[in-house]
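Priority: medium. Attachment 1 of 2:
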């Protein structure tokens, strides 16, 4: 059974769809996220399929295939680009490679020259390589997947925790509100950057460790706006009537208060995602981010700045990709804000 939306919510989503810039940006973002989930089929040094001597192999999601299993004469993982050339010559099979036949960690060195190498369509280095021969498009694509899911995970957890605590602070009030306020104010004084530097110097920074650090120190800012709106809503007639009729605290919060303050939460979500991506990129750029050789936009920016004269395609590629994604997210945020803003669309007739 499909959930039924109230007329006001349907009207808000209709207004959002009418803002074409925001609606198109949302679908482009969804497409990019969907493609990043199957990145191994699009950007990878392993092929999608290999047909060799009457057998079909799926190396992308299968075990490592050694060269001597595929007629290459060595006992380590096969170079599938060489295999594709060999099979094309002798006609004993075929190889279906991804669009970009390189992984984000693979280094390439050519005879007589050293990286970085400029963009080349014939070699399928569409955006060139970085200073140690890694394909830039591959690192951008996998770096996008890390950045977007990092930011979505951060925003989801912090908004749920901050919203629930803010509602409790505003609804319960009194001593509970004062104590939690003081604790949040103390917690917000902990220097975030110093904590990150300390953790990086002690531990090996990985995805989930970084996500945990961001969540632990990033949830507090979500509580203040929700708390203020809950204070206003709890004195409304409909909340007082529900309390008089014996409604439980959970029902009042979930049915009456939360839907009426959800507009503020929803309209700030895209901008929080944008901020999380920028923060992760900045820490990677400063060297306090995810450990190498993890694909990272910040690390590419660092390379691009240091080699902007010899390899301008590095900074141009990462700058263009980051600007494109952040502008899409900003358009979605502006569309939500305009569609859900009651002051702009409320008129007396």
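Attachment 2 of 2:
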């Amino acid at each position: 059974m499909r959930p039924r939306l109230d007329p006001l919510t349907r009207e808000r989503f209709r207004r959002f769809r009418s803002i074409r810039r925001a609606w198109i940006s949302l679908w482009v973002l969804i497409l990019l996220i969907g493609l990043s989930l199957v990145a191994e089929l699009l950007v990878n040094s392993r092929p999608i399929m290999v047909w060799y001597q009457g057998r079909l192999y799926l190396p992308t999601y299968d075990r490592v295939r050694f060269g001597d299993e595929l007629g290459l004469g060595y006992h380590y993982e096969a170079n599938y680009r060489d295999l594709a050339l060999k099979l094309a010559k002798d006609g004993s099979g075929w190889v279906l490679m991804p669009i970009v036949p390189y992984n984000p960690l693979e280094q390439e060195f050519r005879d007589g020259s050293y990286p970085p190498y400029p963009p080349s369509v014939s070699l399928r280095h569409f955006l060139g390589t970085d200073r140690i021969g890694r394909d830039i498009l591959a690192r951008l694509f996998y770096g996008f997947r890390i950045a977007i899911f990092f930011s979505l995970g951060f925003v989801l957890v912090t908004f749920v925790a901050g919203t629930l605590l803010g509602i409790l602070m505003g609804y319960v009030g009194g001593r509970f509100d004062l104590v939690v306020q003081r604790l949040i104010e103390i917690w917000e004084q902990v220097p975030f950057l110093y904590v990150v530097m300390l953790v990086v110097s002690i531990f090996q920074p990985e995805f989930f460790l970084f996500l945990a650090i961001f969540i632990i120190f990033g949830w507090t800012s979500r509580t203040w706006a929700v708390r203020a709106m809950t204070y206003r809503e709890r004195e409304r007639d409909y909340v007082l009537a529900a309390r008089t009729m014996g409604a439980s605290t959970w029902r009042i919060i979930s049915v009456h208060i939360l839907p009426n303050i959800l507009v503020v939460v929803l309209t700030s979500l895209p901008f929080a995602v944008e901020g999380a991506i920028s923060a992760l990129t900045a820490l990677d750029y400063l060297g306090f981010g995810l450990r190498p050789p993890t694909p990272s936009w910040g690390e590419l920016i660092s390379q691009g700045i240091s080699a902007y004269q010899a390899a301008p395609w590095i900074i141009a590629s990462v700058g263009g990709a980051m600007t494109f994604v952040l502008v899409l997210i900003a358009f979605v945020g502006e569309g939500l804000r305009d569609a859900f803003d009651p002051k702009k669309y409320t008129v007396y007739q």
